């Protein structure tokens, strides 16, 4: 099992972020949190890095199903989606979503299989929409 579902876009970083938000919304995910790693590392450590944004994406219906099975699953939510500029190739942006199947693997809770599968299908559809547009 891979840690991430991913795709690569030929686009500007800003366009990739906007398209990712729209694509996630099309699958019922809202973005609850946003961490700008580039800005944070610059501000806290005076370190430079490429554009790198972590979006905390949540599909409320799926989150409800998951916490109904295991209340501690909130420790692994929301699903992180990373949008990052390729440091070695100008014009390439990687979009990577946490593979929800990890929820089952980490918890060992078989009752999470169905919700993890549905979340994976929806996240993969969001990534596929990015490459189709």
Describe this structure in words.
The protein is α+β, with helices and mostly antiparallel strands. The chain has one domain: TT1751-like domain (TATA-Binding Protein), CATH 3.30.310. The protein is built from five helices and five strands. The protein has a five-stranded antiparallel β-sheet. Strand 4 and strand 5 (92-98) form a beta hairpin. The longest helix is centred in the C-terminal third of the chain and has 20 residues, at 113-132. The two termini are 27 Å apart.
Keywords:
133 residues; alpha+beta; 5 helices; TATA-Binding Protein; 5-stranded antiparallel beta sheet; ABC transporter; TT1751-like_sf
Question: How are the SSEs placed, and which strands pair?
Answer:
Elements: E1 4-10, H1 13-26, E2 30-36, H2 37-45, E3 52-58, H3 60-69, E4 79-85, E5 92-98, H4 101-107, H5 113-132
Antiparallel strand pairs: 1-5, 2-3, 3-4, 4-5
């Amino acid at each position: 099992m891979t840690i991430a579902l991913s795709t690569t876009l030929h686009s500007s970083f800003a366009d990739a972020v906007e398209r990712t938000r729209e694509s996630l919304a099309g699958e019922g995910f809202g973005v609850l949190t946003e961490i700008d790693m580039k800005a944070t590392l610059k501000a806290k450590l005076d370190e430079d890095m490429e554009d790198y944004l972590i979006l905390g994406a949540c599909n409320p219906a799926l989150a409800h199903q998951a916490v109904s099975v295991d209340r501690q699953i909130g420790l692994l939510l929301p699903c992180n989606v990373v949008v990052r500029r390729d440091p070695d190739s100008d014009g390439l942006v990687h979009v990577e979503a946490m593979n929800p199947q990890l929820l089952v693997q980490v918890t060992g809770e078989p009752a999470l299989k169905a919700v993890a599968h549905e979340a994976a299908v929806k996240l993969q559809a969001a990534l596929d929409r990015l490459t189709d547009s």
